[in-house]
Amino acid sequence: MVDRNREMLLILAKALKFSWQTTMALLFLGAKDHRITARELTALERDFNRLNVETSERVLEFYRSRRNPGSAEPGLGAEPLVAAG
Fold this sequence. Notes:
The structure is a single chain. By secondary structure, this protein is mainly alpha-helical. It is built from four helices and no strands. The protein is 56% helix and 0% strand. Helix 1 (7-15) runs antiparallel to helix 2 (20-30) and helix 1 (7-15) crosses helix 4 (53-67). The N and C termini lie far apart (43 Å).
């Protein structure tokens, strides 16, 4: 979560359907000395509001699939396979 480029945090928060207030709290927690300028916060809120939930979910799924090759489809690799019988 601590990242100089806060884009991924915004995408993750949007994909998880967090409110702006929750997202802002996470941004402050990850900020150096827990400080963000008013100008930067305004820009982050604008970027957060422009994000689309569905697109953010797809970006998140893409990162998951890169991290876990072979689980590119949602749900694959996330649950153990159980033999029928």
